[in-house]
Design a protein that fits this description.
The chain is α+β, with helices and mostly antiparallel strands. The protein is built from 8 helices and 11 strands. Helix 6 packs across helix 7.
Length: 230
Amino acid sequence: MESGFERDDFLRSDLFAKITKPQADKMLKCSMAAYKNYQSGELIFGQNDKPKNLYLLLKGQVIITKYFPSGRRDILFHVRENQVFGEIFLFAGEEYYWYDALAVKDCQVLVLPYGFIYGMCPNVCDHHKQIIQNLLDIQSKKNLQMSKKLHILTSATLKQKLMLLLLDEQDENHEVHLDMTREELADYLGVARPSLSRTLKELQEDGIIENKRKIIYLKNLEKIEEIFEE
Protein backbone atom coordinates (compact mmCIF):
# COMPACT_ATOMS: atom_id res chain seq x y z
CA MET A 1 0.00 0.00 0.00
CA GLU A 2 1.06 3.52 -0.68
CA SER A 3 0.51 6.45 1.66
CA GLY A 4 0.71 10.09 0.72
CA PHE A 5 -2.26 12.15 1.78
CA GLU A 6 -0.83 15.35 0.36
CA ARG A 7 -3.07 14.56 -2.62
CA ASP A 8 -6.64 15.76 -2.28
CA ASP A 9 -8.42 13.44 -4.75
CA PHE A 10 -10.57 12.00 -1.97
CA LEU A 11 -12.06 15.40 -1.04
CA ARG A 12 -14.27 15.28 -4.17
CA SER A 13 -16.14 12.32 -2.72
CA ASP A 14 -19.43 12.54 -0.84
CA LEU A 15 -17.65 10.67 1.94
CA PHE A 16 -15.67 13.82 2.78
CA ALA A 17 -18.46 16.35 2.22
CA LYS A 18 -18.23 19.30 4.67
CA ILE A 19 -14.80 18.09 5.83
CA THR A 20 -11.74 20.27 5.22
CA LYS A 21 -8.44 18.94 3.92
CA PRO A 22 -6.60 19.42 7.27
CA GLN A 23 -9.42 17.56 9.04
CA ALA A 24 -9.38 14.81 6.42
CA ASP A 25 -5.60 14.46 6.55
CA LYS A 26 -5.77 14.07 10.32
CA MET A 27 -8.48 11.44 10.07
CA LEU A 28 -6.66 9.42 7.41
CA LYS A 29 -3.44 9.35 9.41
CA CYS A 30 -5.30 8.43 12.58
CA SER A 31 -7.18 5.64 10.81
CA MET A 32 -4.04 4.23 9.14
CA ALA A 33 -5.80 4.54 5.77
CA ALA A 34 -3.74 3.91 2.65
CA TYR A 35 -3.84 4.07 -1.13
CA LYS A 36 -3.79 0.84 -3.09
CA ASN A 37 -3.60 0.20 -6.83
CA TYR A 38 -5.44 -2.60 -8.63
CA GLN A 39 -5.02 -3.71 -12.21
CA SER A 40 -7.93 -4.31 -14.58
CA GLY A 41 -9.36 -7.76 -13.90
CA GLU A 42 -8.03 -7.89 -10.33
CA LEU A 43 -10.35 -8.80 -7.47
CA ILE A 44 -10.46 -6.12 -4.76
CA PHE A 45 -12.40 -8.38 -2.42
CA GLY A 46 -14.35 -11.60 -2.88
CA GLN A 47 -17.58 -12.88 -1.43
CA ASN A 48 -15.70 -15.29 0.86
CA ASP A 49 -13.46 -12.57 2.32
CA LYS A 50 -14.14 -11.12 5.75
CA PRO A 51 -15.26 -7.46 5.66
CA LYS A 52 -12.72 -5.19 7.28
CA ASN A 53 -12.31 -2.09 5.08
CA LEU A 54 -14.26 0.73 3.52
CA TYR A 55 -13.16 1.56 -0.04
CA LEU A 56 -13.21 4.87 -1.91
CA LEU A 57 -12.55 4.66 -5.66
CA LEU A 58 -10.31 7.53 -6.76
CA LYS A 59 -9.50 6.46 -10.31
CA GLY A 60 -10.75 3.71 -12.59
CA GLN A 61 -13.94 1.65 -12.48
CA VAL A 62 -15.22 -1.20 -10.33
CA ILE A 63 -18.18 -3.54 -10.68
CA ILE A 64 -20.00 -5.13 -7.78
CA THR A 65 -21.12 -8.55 -8.92
CA LYS A 66 -22.66 -11.79 -7.67
CA TYR A 67 -22.26 -15.16 -9.37
CA PHE A 68 -25.03 -17.74 -9.67
CA PRO A 69 -24.21 -21.47 -9.17
CA SER A 70 -24.45 -21.83 -12.96
CA GLY A 71 -21.56 -19.39 -13.39
CA ARG A 72 -23.73 -16.59 -14.76
CA ARG A 73 -23.08 -13.28 -13.08
CA ASP A 74 -25.39 -10.52 -11.95
CA ILE A 75 -23.88 -7.03 -11.91
CA LEU A 76 -25.46 -5.28 -8.97
CA PHE A 77 -24.04 -1.86 -9.74
CA HIS A 78 -21.03 0.02 -11.07
CA VAL A 79 -18.74 2.03 -8.83
CA ARG A 80 -17.58 5.25 -10.46
CA GLU A 81 -14.77 7.57 -9.45
CA ASN A 82 -15.17 9.25 -6.04
CA GLN A 83 -17.77 6.68 -4.96
CA VAL A 84 -17.64 4.43 -1.90
CA PHE A 85 -18.08 0.66 -1.91
CA GLY A 86 -18.06 -2.08 0.72
CA GLU A 87 -19.84 0.27 3.10
CA ILE A 88 -22.98 -1.81 3.66
CA PHE A 89 -20.98 -4.32 5.69
CA LEU A 90 -19.83 -1.62 8.09
CA PHE A 91 -23.07 -1.82 10.07
CA ALA A 92 -24.53 -5.10 8.80
CA GLY A 93 -22.41 -7.36 11.00
CA GLU A 94 -22.00 -9.98 8.26
CA GLU A 95 -19.08 -12.38 8.63
CA TYR A 96 -18.33 -12.52 4.89
CA TYR A 97 -18.87 -10.35 1.86
CA TRP A 98 -21.92 -11.38 -0.12
CA TYR A 99 -20.50 -10.18 -3.44
CA ASP A 100 -17.29 -9.55 -5.35
CA ALA A 101 -15.68 -6.19 -6.12
CA LEU A 102 -13.78 -6.40 -9.40
CA ALA A 103 -11.61 -3.74 -11.05
CA VAL A 104 -12.66 -3.43 -14.70
CA LYS A 105 -10.14 -0.66 -15.34
CA ASP A 106 -6.84 0.05 -13.61
CA CYS A 107 -7.85 1.53 -10.27
CA GLN A 108 -6.53 3.57 -7.39
CA VAL A 109 -8.46 3.06 -4.18
CA LEU A 110 -8.34 4.69 -0.77
CA VAL A 111 -8.72 1.95 1.86
CA LEU A 112 -10.06 2.89 5.32
CA PRO A 113 -10.21 0.28 8.10
CA TYR A 114 -13.67 -0.30 9.55
CA GLY A 115 -12.37 0.03 13.09
CA PHE A 116 -11.73 3.73 12.77
CA ILE A 117 -15.16 4.53 11.31
CA TYR A 118 -17.17 2.20 13.51
CA GLY A 119 -15.25 2.59 16.77
CA MET A 120 -14.65 6.34 16.51
CA CYS A 121 -11.72 7.99 18.21
CA PRO A 122 -11.65 9.02 21.91
CA ASN A 123 -11.97 12.70 20.97
CA VAL A 124 -15.19 12.18 18.96
CA CYS A 125 -14.28 15.11 16.70
CA ASP A 126 -16.99 16.95 14.81
CA HIS A 127 -15.47 15.92 11.49
CA HIS A 128 -15.51 12.29 12.62
CA LYS A 129 -19.22 12.57 13.33
CA GLN A 130 -19.61 14.27 9.94
CA ILE A 131 -18.07 11.34 8.07
CA ILE A 132 -20.54 8.97 9.73
CA GLN A 133 -23.38 11.24 8.65
CA ASN A 134 -21.94 11.24 5.14
CA LEU A 135 -21.85 7.45 5.18
CA LEU A 136 -25.52 7.31 6.12
CA ASP A 137 -26.33 9.66 3.24
CA ILE A 138 -24.31 7.48 0.86
CA GLN A 139 -26.10 4.37 2.07
CA SER A 140 -29.49 6.02 1.49
CA LYS A 141 -28.51 6.82 -2.09
CA LYS A 142 -27.28 3.25 -2.59
CA ASN A 143 -30.60 1.91 -1.31
CA LEU A 144 -32.40 4.11 -3.83
CA GLN A 145 -30.11 2.84 -6.58
CA MET A 146 -30.95 -0.76 -5.73
CA SER A 147 -34.66 0.07 -5.56
CA LYS A 148 -34.44 1.52 -9.06
CA LYS A 149 -32.74 -1.65 -10.29
CA LEU A 150 -35.47 -3.79 -8.73
CA HIS A 151 -38.08 -1.66 -10.52
CA ILE A 152 -36.22 -2.14 -13.82
CA LEU A 153 -35.83 -5.90 -13.44
CA THR A 154 -39.49 -6.48 -12.59
CA SER A 155 -40.62 -4.93 -15.89
CA ALA A 156 -42.38 -7.36 -18.22
CA THR A 157 -40.23 -7.07 -21.34
CA LEU A 158 -36.59 -6.47 -22.17
CA LYS A 159 -37.53 -3.30 -24.07
CA GLN A 160 -39.19 -1.95 -20.94
CA LYS A 161 -36.21 -2.85 -18.76
CA LEU A 162 -33.78 -1.23 -21.15
CA MET A 163 -35.83 1.94 -21.61
CA LEU A 164 -36.32 2.41 -17.86
CA LEU A 165 -32.55 2.26 -17.45
CA LEU A 166 -31.92 4.67 -20.33
CA LEU A 167 -34.56 7.12 -19.10
CA ASP A 168 -32.98 7.13 -15.64
CA GLU A 169 -29.46 7.64 -17.03
CA GLN A 170 -30.25 10.32 -19.65
CA ASP A 171 -28.92 13.87 -19.33
CA GLU A 172 -30.69 17.15 -20.19
CA ASN A 173 -30.01 16.53 -23.89
CA HIS A 174 -31.65 13.08 -23.79
CA GLU A 175 -28.25 11.45 -24.18
CA VAL A 176 -27.04 8.40 -22.24
CA HIS A 177 -23.28 8.09 -21.85
CA LEU A 178 -22.76 4.43 -21.01
CA ASP A 179 -19.71 3.37 -19.05
CA MET A 180 -20.65 -0.30 -19.38
CA THR A 181 -19.69 -2.73 -22.10
CA ARG A 182 -22.52 -4.58 -23.85
CA GLU A 183 -21.66 -7.68 -21.83
CA GLU A 184 -21.79 -5.73 -18.55
CA LEU A 185 -25.08 -4.09 -19.55
CA ALA A 186 -26.57 -7.51 -20.34
CA ASP A 187 -25.38 -8.86 -16.98
CA TYR A 188 -26.83 -5.83 -15.21
CA LEU A 189 -30.22 -6.43 -16.83
CA GLY A 190 -30.00 -10.19 -16.31
CA VAL A 191 -30.34 -11.08 -20.00
CA ALA A 192 -28.25 -12.76 -22.69
CA ARG A 193 -26.04 -10.45 -24.71
CA PRO A 194 -27.55 -11.49 -28.10
CA SER A 195 -31.02 -10.60 -26.78
CA LEU A 196 -29.76 -7.19 -25.69
CA SER A 197 -28.09 -6.53 -29.04
CA ARG A 198 -31.26 -7.56 -30.87
CA THR A 199 -33.40 -5.24 -28.73
CA LEU A 200 -31.04 -2.29 -29.22
CA LYS A 201 -31.17 -2.89 -32.98
CA GLU A 202 -34.98 -3.00 -32.97
CA LEU A 203 -35.20 0.23 -30.98
CA GLN A 204 -32.87 1.93 -33.43
CA GLU A 205 -34.76 0.64 -36.46
CA ASP A 206 -38.00 1.94 -34.94
CA GLY A 207 -36.45 5.40 -34.58
CA ILE A 208 -36.69 5.35 -30.78
CA ILE A 209 -32.97 5.54 -30.12
CA GLU A 210 -29.78 6.26 -32.00
CA ASN A 211 -26.88 4.11 -30.86
CA LYS A 212 -23.39 5.48 -31.45
CA ARG A 213 -20.63 3.65 -29.62
CA LYS A 214 -20.78 4.71 -25.97
CA ILE A 215 -23.62 7.21 -26.45
CA ILE A 216 -27.31 6.39 -26.88
CA TYR A 217 -29.60 9.20 -28.01
CA LEU A 218 -33.28 9.04 -27.04
CA LYS A 219 -35.06 10.24 -30.19
CA ASN A 220 -38.82 9.73 -29.87
CA LEU A 221 -40.37 10.15 -26.42
CA GLU A 222 -43.89 9.38 -27.67
CA LYS A 223 -42.80 5.98 -28.98
CA ILE A 224 -40.96 5.37 -25.72
CA GLU A 225 -44.25 5.80 -23.84
CA GLU A 226 -45.88 3.25 -26.14
CA ILE A 227 -43.32 0.65 -25.04
CA PHE A 228 -44.82 0.69 -21.55
CA GLU A 229 -48.33 0.14 -22.93
CA GLU A 230 -47.40 -3.21 -24.46
